[in-house]
Specification:
With 131 residues, the chain is an alpha+beta fold. Helices cover 21% and strands 39% of the residues. It has one domain: Thrombin, subunit H, CATH 2.40.10. The chain has a six-stranded antiparallel β-barrel.
Length: 131
């Protein structure tokens, strides 16, 4: 496989936006303590998904590809709620405590809000580097 073939296809503009994200696993059978909300932060974000920092150590549950997550993304203009699927565990800048998630259920107006925020963040970062 060539380097070009191994690249991931991206359908949405992505920026290195950092926003608070709360998540918890969705389960068929309710568990007690392990269903607590976990605090995270986006390392990059697009209207279709994000790379998020996932905790480790006591109180954090390991995520694996295929897990469904209920999430709240805290961003300018108000929070966005939805359902995401863990698609991969990443080695991101030396940390293996990063999950790639794909948004599978987000209201259309919230997806638009994410896209506009990401685009604005990207433009601000681009103009900031030109100075």
């Amino acid at each position: 496989m060539t380097e070009h073939e191994s690249r991931q296809k991206r359908y949405d503009f992505r920026s290195d936006s950092n926003y608070a994200l709360w998540y918890r696993k969705i389960r068929r059978v309710q568990a007690a303590k392990s269903d607590e909300w976990q605090r995270s932060v986006t390392l990059n974000l697009s209207a279709g998904g994000a790379a998020i920092s996932v905790g480790h150590g006591k109180g954090y549950e390991k995520l694996t590809p295929g897990d469904l997550l209920e999430f709240e993304l805290v961003m300018p203009g108000g929070p966005v709620f939805g359902i995401a699927r863990v698609v991969r565990i990443l080695d991101y800048r030396g940390s293996s405590n990063v999950a790639g998630i794909s948004f599978v259920s987000v209201a259309p107006q919230d997806r638009d809000k994410i896209a506009k925020t990401v685009l604005n963040d990207g433009l601000e970062n681009r103009h900031g580097k030109d100075k």
